[in-house]
Amino acid sequence: MKVSADIKIMGIVNITPDSFFDGNHYYDSQLAIDHALRLIDEGADIIDVGGESTRPGAASVSAKEEIGRVIPVIKEVVRLGKVPVSVDTTKAEVAKAALDVGAAIINDISGMTFDTNMADIVASYNATIVLMHTPGRPDVMMQRTDYTDVVEEVVRFLEEQITYAIDKGISRNKIIVDPGIGFGKSVHDNYQILSSLDSFLSLGYPLLIGLSRKSLIGALYETAEDRLPATIALNSIALYCGATIIRVHDVKEHKLAFESLKMLKTEKV
User: Fold this and answer.
1) What is the pLDDT of residue 265?
2) Exposure string for 41-75, b = 16+ CB within 10 A, e = fewer
3) Residue 175 C-alpha from the chain's centroid
4) Which pLDDT tens digit goes with each residue over 72-97?
5) In whole angstroms, what is the distance from residue 25 CA to residue 12 CA?
6) Cα 264 vs. chain centroid, distance in angstroms?
7) Per-residue pLDDT at 23
8) How do beta strands 128-132 and 105-108 pair?
9) d(C-alpha 70, C-alpha 99), whole Å
10) Can you list the positions of beta strands (E) in the chain?
11) Please, what is the angle between helix 63-80 and helix 92-100, to 10°?
């Protein structure tokens, strides 16, 4: 048992017309702001704002369009000063705009491989970076799932990107790693990763898990409504195994479920 003493829930705010679960629900800036505040009231420790869908097959949008979607929301949530704000982007231009209005975390699904300017921006602002693994852009990533050993290959990628980040001047204490569940992985690959979290914890950095309502769960059920209980179950296992940050759509339900995990830090099991 390795339940972290510092469990954090990252609440998802997608300002997109096409995200797989909540696309178009919060496309209006005010609706997105209201949703972010609701997630904070429900117990979110971090708000993660995204303006471009990263679901499998999703097309890219311009930096200008992405900035127009996320900045009003980030600015208002930061102004209220309740929790740190993360921006879910692979573009240095978007990251800079978000950091300029007070974002504290850059959540880059590419591990800073899509935009060669990203590391310099993160370093210059002394921001926190989430380094995630994906084998390609969302429109092609599911065509690249032919791993020999998915855990070994993802760990190696993260090791390389950690070294790259540090060489670029990003502080070690500003790095978070994410194996990228659902990004260019088969259902089997995803469960293999969840069964091998020790391999990612051995890197020595906080571990973020983002599996909320994804296909590894959807493959088991007929309707989207059935995905929440399994999401909570798998996220609880991830925390029990040592993950620190859980990225979710359903904050209140996870907050309630995780209260029992806190007891495991002091009680013998």
Assistant:
1) 60
2) ebbbbbbbbbbbbbbbebebbebeebbebbbbbbb
3) 13
4) 999 999 999 899 999 999 999 999 99
5) 12
6) 25
7) 43
8) parallel
9) 11
10) 8-14, 46-50, 85-88, 105-108, 128-132, 175-178, 208-209, 245-248
11) 30
pLDDT at 224: 67
Choosing from 214, 252, 262, 268, which is the catalytic residue?
Answer: 214
Dist. CA 128–CA 174, nearest whole Å: 4
pLDDT of residue 20: 46
Collapse the DSSP code of 177 into the 3-class scheme (helix H, G, I; strand E, B; otherwise coil) and give the result: strand
Task: Give the pair of three-digit tokens for residue 106.
Answer: 């850059």
CB atoms under 10 Å from CB of 30, counted, come to: 11
pLDDT, the chain, mean: 89
Inter-residue long-range contacts of 257-261, CB under 8 Å, 24+ positions, other chains counted: 257/232, 258/7, 258/9, 261/3, 261/7, 261/236
Q: At what angle do helices 227-240 and 251-263 cross, to 10 degrees?
A: 40
**Residue 140 CB coordination number (10 Å):** 12
Find the helix or strand (DSSP H, E) in which 65 lies. helix 63-80
Give the pTM: 0.91
Instruction: Report the topology of domain 8-263.
Output: TIM Barrel (3.20.20)
Known catalytic residue at 214: yes
State how far the Cα of 250 lies from the Cα of 256, in Å rounded to an integer: 11
pLDDT value for 22: 46
Q: What is the pLDDT of residues 166-178, one digit of tens each?
A: 999 999 999 999 9
Name the residue among 71, 81, 73, 69 with its Cα closest to residue 33: 73
Positions of the chain with pLDDT lower than 70, given as ranges = 1-5, 18-27, 57, 222, 224, 265-269
Determine whether 247 is exposed, middle or buried from the number of CB atoms within 10 Å of its CB (0-12, 13-18, 19+): buried
Q: Domain map of the chain by residue range?
A: 8-263
pLDDT of residue 54: 79
